[in-house]
Amino acid sequence: MKLITVVLLCLLLLLVLLFVIPIRIICKISTSGKIDFALTVQVLGIPIRILPQKKRLPDIRKFRRDALEKLYAKKQKKAAAAALAKEKKAARKARKKQRAEDRAKARAAKTGYTPKKRGVKHIIKLVLALTKALLGRFGRYLRVDVAYLDITAASKDPAQTAILYGWIWAAMENFWNLLSGTAMFHRIKKNRIAIYADFLAEKPSVRGKIIFSIALWQVCALLIAGGGAALGVEAEARKHESAEEREARRRHEAEARAAVIRELKEK
Fold it and tell me: What are the backbone angles phi and psi of residue 144, rounded to the nearest 5°?
């Protein structure tokens, strides 16, 4: 019993750490090396390399006749299962669509009102609400750390190298002025970004290491915020629709009463 309690506590602690400790995405750039771009995800201090993937030598045993026959049979079985799953999914989708149409017809017959499809105005409201809810929090949650970023201007012509150096400097200065005041980049030190001019080299080069970090609970908070914003826009649309539906119901009831009165007068 004590062992089970210890295991459960360890699992709980691991889950808490997974939610609290930020997940780091490490990007390395080096145009002068063998690897131009490397991407590593670090979870609980454990690095997981995404790019470049390790090259593995082919297993010769997989190319034997019996292994190829098994692989073919496995693929055929997998394809048949995928086709069956696709058919079931299409059938479920058709049934769901039919039920929605039946409910809409019953509602229209009862109230005399047919809800309009969501138009461009609704989509724009939804996009604006999601942008406001996500970008603000995302800017506060995401952390960017530039370990180093070295940009070297170079070309075959020294005059072109000088022009390129000035252009890179001006572009990076404008870029820095735009981003340095944001929450994601306000911790970055300007001296970690260096620009050089190499009059002996023939090609420009970039070398850098940039780390992005965000905690799992912050990702969940972003999803909840986005879902809440979407539900708010949908509730507003339904509220407007309910007002129109109520008015349509009143007209429908008034028309029904008028029809009953006409029938009584004719008798």
Answer: -120, 130
The per-residue pLDDT of the chain, averaged, comes to 81
Q: Count CB atoms within 10 A of the CB of residue 211.
A: 17
For CA atoms 154, 157, 160, 161, the dihedral sign is positive
C-alpha span between 92 and 266 (Å, rounded):
50
Of 144, 190, 151, 188, whose CA–CA distance to 169 is shortest? Answer: 151
R_g over Cα of the chain: 31
First to last CA, the chain: 85
Q: What is the pTM of this model?
A: 0.65
Compute CA distances 94 → 90, 97, 102, 107, whole Å. Answer: 6, 5, 12, 20
The CA distances from residue 106 to 20, 39, 96, 111, 114, in Å, are 49, 55, 15, 9, 10
